[in-house]
Amino acid sequence: MSDLDKPANKDLALPAKFPYSIADKLPNFARRIALIFVGQGAREGYLAAMDQGLISVANFLATLILARLVSPTELGVYGVGFTSLRLVRSVQEGLTIQPMNTFGAAMDGDSFKRYATSTSLIQVGMAVASSAAVALGGWALTALGNDTAGPALFSLWFVFLFWQLQEYIRRILYTRGHVFQAALNTALANTVRVGILIALASRDRLSGAAGLNAIAWGSLAALLPGLWQTRAYWTRHFENLVETWKKNWNFGRWLLGGTLSNWIAVEFYPVLTAGMISFAAAGAYRALQNLVAPVHILLRATDTFLTPRAARQYQENENGLSTLKRTLRLTYLAAGLPILGILSLAVLFPEPILRALYGETYLAYSDGITLMALFYMLWFAYWPIQIAFKAARSSRPIFLANLAATGAMFTLGIWMISRWGVYGTIAGQALNALVVGLFLWGTWLRIGKREPA
User: Fold this and answer.
1) Helices (H), 4-71
2) CA geometry: angle at 21 spanning 17 and 23, to 5°?
3) What Å distances lie between residue 217 and 135, 154, 194, CA to CA?
4) Is this structure's pTM higher than 0.90?
5) Strand, helix or coil at 236?
6) What is the pLDDT along the chain (453 residues), one digit of tens a residue?
7) In angstroms, what CA-CA distances link 130 with 98, 135, 162, 392, 435?
8) DSSP notation for 380-419
9) Burial (Cβ within 10 Å: 0-12, 13-18, ≥19) of residue 321
């Protein structure tokens, strides 16, 4: 049996490398606190944070390079395209990745091979369909005379196709507990991406579309070795595609609704800003968001790393709800302090940071950093709760929460953008995060009353 074909590690027990002689002398609570930082789960968590950190650093550098060398309009094109990529990720999360995380985490090797191969074929079909859709849409807009949005939309076909496939491969490795190999794949993709941006910058050929194409080339470069990394998970004897689709759909339909409505409620705001104001305003938003981009390291790392682990823990323990409660407490403790530190720095020193990164171009928007920090803090307040619902295969509350936030966006949110511009965009996102957080926390507390911690 190859290393990749081994079942995922069981992370609930005290790791063998932890010094028992020291642990035995500690009170039980202190020992649990120590395990947060030195246990096997912690070590894998550090790898997951490093993995997501590579992505976030690449995103940060890409935005920084573009913001310094292209116009705000071109940066806005890149920002709107990047937001569109997150729309594709929302669909992917609901229909392939989260079902694979939840069902695949506890499967034995042969069962996972059959299921993963079948789900992979579904993923390929989704990638091809979405790529063709944006190519056709971009061509149509260009033919109608829109020489900004049309070419930008058309250029997304390349990144839609290869980014989805590479991301899916990477998440398979996470599902089976091979975090280090996932990090290697991420490092290759983002090294190629940033290298291409630097090469284009040296030749004065940067643009918003070029920034998006660099993501695609990096994904393609990592996809090929990624197929080799996951070779143990492919088989010719895969599950029936229709049955796999039904299985994924029955679990993921509410989650798909939740991720799509979350994209509309949170991520669609910059697109509205581009449409209601200008692509340059969307570029200013992207420049401000880049200041708190390190928070994405922890938000995405906790989702990518923790969801399959929490799903496995929930399924393998009789008292699954109490296990999820403990996981939530540890997650808020481990991630809350660094997130608070990052946001505090951004709020305390907005003008020096903006000047150091972009010069004088976006300095006039420094007051928006406080709103951006508030938005990210409210976002983090419900992020681990969302993971718990997914792990428990209860995605309906996520959908309903984001549906309520979408209603807030198309009423108060649009009014805020029209009245306050970029600041209204960020304030609307903060409002939506508050709505989602209140709904999810209220639902979670009602469920928690049914079972003691």
Assistant:
1) 20-23, 28-38, 40-69
2) 75
3) 17, 16, 10
4) no
5) coil
6) 444 444 444 433 334 444 444 445 556 655 555 555 555 555 666 677 778 778 888 998 999 999 999 999 899 989 888 988 989 988 998 899 988 888 887 788 788 999 999 999 999 999 999 999 999 999 998 888 887 778 888 889 999 999 999 999 999 998 888 888 999 999 999 999 999 999 999 999 999 999 999 999 999 999 999 999 999 888 988 889 999 999 999 888 877 887 787 788 777 888 888 888 888 888 999 899 988 878 877 787 777 777 777 877 787 776 778 888 888 888 898 888 899 999 999 999 999 999 999 988 899 999 999 999 999 999 999 999 988 888 887 878 888 898 899 899 889 999 999 999 999 999 999 999 999 999 999 999 888 766 544
7) 19, 9, 11, 29, 30
8) HHHHHHHHHHHHTT--HHHHHHHHHHHHHIIIIIHHHHHH
9) middle
| Token representation of residue 251 | 């679990």
Amino acid present at 186: T
Which residue is it, tokens 């491969």? Answer: 169
Report the alpha-carbon distance of residue 70 to residue 50 in Å, rounded: 29
Tokens read off for 85 = 């990529």
Distance CA 112, CA 422 (A): 46
Please say whether the beta carbons of 105 and 391 come within 8 A: no
- Directed axis angle between helix 28-38 and helix 40-69, to 10°? 40
Q: Where are the domains of the chain?
A: 33-448
> CA gyration radius for the chain?
22
- Closest listed residue to residue 197, CA positions, set 293, 328, 71, 60: 60
Coil, strand or helix: which one is 10? Answer: coil
